[in-house]
Design goal:
The chain has 253 residues and is an alpha/beta fold. It is built from nine helices and five strands.
Length: 253
């Protein structure tokens, strides 16, 4: 039986008490899976103009779940750059040929290694793309020279997703799991869940597990039961507005 085929079934829910663990692929970082929106437009524009980066360096920053890692993968695939993790940067690493995309750059514990990377990549005219939750000027570094370099770096923020981007992201997450939801549930999720990709992904994973366990379509009541700890107040209680209605042909992320 495919998901969504039993949405009309009625009767009490008798959960087994243990949710199954569905098989689900990890994050997808292909360019085709990324959707440009006003919140990330500035970052996307900068990533298309690597040659214009001051000192060949750029930082993108924003809260978790806003697409920083995805953008790093896209840029690395375009340019042939290496993907590095800030937590793993130590010592004086050899520079790759094409460039470096450093994720979680503010997690670098070895400040000497970071300032060496900044200096060496600039001297080699090697593009260096950093990503972090805060702009480099606000990283709590101790070395004065490093602090000065970070304050001078061009940094572009990835803002909070707008309603259209959230709706498209939810649609893609549901499609990935072949999970069909009534429009009422879809709209209710968007009005009550935190406005982050991580919250949407967690909610869809829970709803998918629940649908496999109870063998029924997901209703607002079931969704509320399984997502209680994630929910916030309705959107109209926060902003005085509601989300626009969904469109059947809206593009997926």
């Amino acid at each position: 039986m495919t998901k969504g085929s039993n949405q009309g079934r009625s009767g009490p829910v008798h959960p087994t008490g243990q949710l199954p663990l569905p098989i689900f692929p990890g994050p997808r970082f292909a360019e085709l899976d990324f959707r440009e929106a006003p919140s990330n437009a500035d970052a996307c524009a900068w990533l298309r103009r690597t040659g214009d980066w001051p000192n060949h360096q750029l930082a993108v920053w924003g809260e978790a779940g806003r697409g920083k890692t995805h953008l790093l993968h896209i840029w690395a695939a375009r340019t042939g750059a290496d993907l590095w993790s800030g937590a793993d940067l130590t010592g004086l690493p050899d520079l790759p040929a094409a460039g470096i995309a450093l994720d979680d750059a503010n997690a670098v514990a070895d400040e000497t290694a970071l300032i060496h990377l900044l200096n060496a990549s600039a001297e080699a005219h090697l593009p260096l793309l950093l990503a972090a939750r805060l702009p480099p000027s606000r990283w709590p570094v101790r070395l004065p020279d490093l602090a000065s370099r970070l304050r001078a770096m061009t940094a572009v923020e990835i803002g909070a997703p707008d309603d259209a981007l959230l709706r498209a992201l939810l649609a893609r997450l549901l499609a990935d799991r072949q999970l069909r939801l009534p429009t009422t549930v879809h709209d209710w999720l968007l009005s009550r869940l935190p406005r982050t990709a991580a919250a949407l992904a967690e909610a869809v994973a829970r709803l998918d597990a629940m649908s496999l366990d109870v063998h029924r379509g997901i209703t607002v009541r079931l969704a509320r039961d399984v997502l209680t700890d994630l929910l916030g107040p309705p959107a109209d209680e926060i902003s005085g507005t509601t989300l626009p209605p969904s469109r059947d042909n809206s593009p997926l992320l």
